Amino acid sequence: MSEGESKFGFKDMEKALETLKLLESHDMQYRKLTVRGLLGRAKRVLTLTKASEKVKNINDAIGVFEKWLEENGGGASNKNAKTDSEDKVQTVPGLGFKDKTAAEATLRVLAERDPDYQRLAIKGLIGSSKRVLSGTKNEDKIKDINEGVQVLEKFLEEFEAENRIKDNRAYIPHALIAQLPEPKEALAAEFLAAYGGAKANGNYKHLRTMTPKDDTTSWDIIRNRQIAKLLDQVKTTDDKLFAKENGEPSKLHLSLIHWAYSPQPQKVKSYVEKHEKLTKSPEKRKVPSASNSSSEDDADNSSSDASEEKEVPKKKRKQE
Length: 320
Known about the structure:
Blueprint: H1 13-23, H2 28-48, H3 52-71, H4 84-87, H5 100-110, H6 115-134, H7 139-161, H8 174-177, H9 186-195, H10 219-237, H11 251-257, H12 265-319
Helix pairs in contact: 1-3, 2-3, 5-7, 6-7, 10-11
């Protein structure tokens, strides 16, 4: 790790801004990957942090990084996904701040969606409201917008105070899930087909505006509901998630993975990589088998050579 990289961090807003400043000397792709990595680490740290002041400081840093990614078109969840500007991610309909009614409707639309999206959407609306207010002279409109913003700001305050980001269920890349056994459950199979299909193409943000064939509820909400049920089962059954002998995900854990979530995604990745090597090992075993067949050929040749050698003395005896 270089000296510059060692100074990257997310302990508070000041550290986040300092990190972005240090990253300016690097190319844009490196900057995006680094910021995404720091965001992921910050969110994991939040799940283990109880001190309210520390939670607030980290959340402030997360807000800086998320805003930077949004402004620089780097909000995709994984390295292989396209940026939002290239991928044309549709905006979730029904979000607004024009008055209290619109703001309350916004909160209903955002209910049960991913917490990191809830926070990002609310912060975006509050930011937009300020720009609208700066160009508005109508007193009634100003009053209505301010009432709407108050509803959104109250939600955001409660969100941060309760550290709701800890309930965010980060998506596992579709490419990783595709290397594991397919789901037998029809809804999970349909979800994965949507996640990895032509429209989403592995970019989870599309799932916010995509629905199953026989439902009007978007996939992101359905996913969160299914994960909540499965996590309750994990708690009640004391599921170990991974088999002790070979590290294979348990049946219940695999069900979670089919909804693009794991409490231990890095361990899942390690298992898949190890399993991939094991599945390739039979091909490597063909080498010895090929050498065995070669040995058999050599043995046949040796036998024929030996028989020829045995015949030579006979010829010599005839000549004698």
